[in-house]
Amino acid sequence: MALALLNRVKGWRAEICAPDAIVTSMNGVEVRTQQPLEWAAQADVVLVGSGARRLEVANDAALMARIRLDPARQLIGSQCSGALILGALGLVGDMPVCTDRTSQPMAIAAGLRVLEAPFVARGNVASAGGCMAAHYLAAWAIARGAGVEAARSVIDYVAPVGEKAETVARVMAVIAPFVADVPQAA
Question: What would the pLDDT profile of 125-144 be if each residue is shown by its tens digit?
Fold first, then answer.
């Protein structure tokens, strides 16, 4: 979902990168990756998704060594169990994370402080909890990278018919504290 939202920003091109050419979702959907895992080091925005192999990945030193991220230069976010990956990479520090209910015990066992909220960010690092929180993560990345009006426009475009105003208002209210330094439209 976040990929589809990011790709609605004019001039942006979001791609899936992974350790293999084809990865299988936890629901059995095969996804062809566009870039190798190492490509994440070049990206302006990196959003780490969730997955059934979350602990296996976070504990795989060789695989984790292939991921080079720089929060001074990149916007970096996680969704659900992706917080375990950010934690394993040392990108979370003392920041609380958001995750889904299934991943919450694993995140706590990994030493992460879990926040009971759909979204949190500190600087260039963010996390969202719950599959339907993807729009918060994407809206934050868009607002930080392309401006608040771009985020508002993308969310309006994808919001359910008859619920557009409420959806845009809710999403923008959730991310507002984390994009307060981003210029608003005049």
Answer: 999 999 999 999 999 999 99
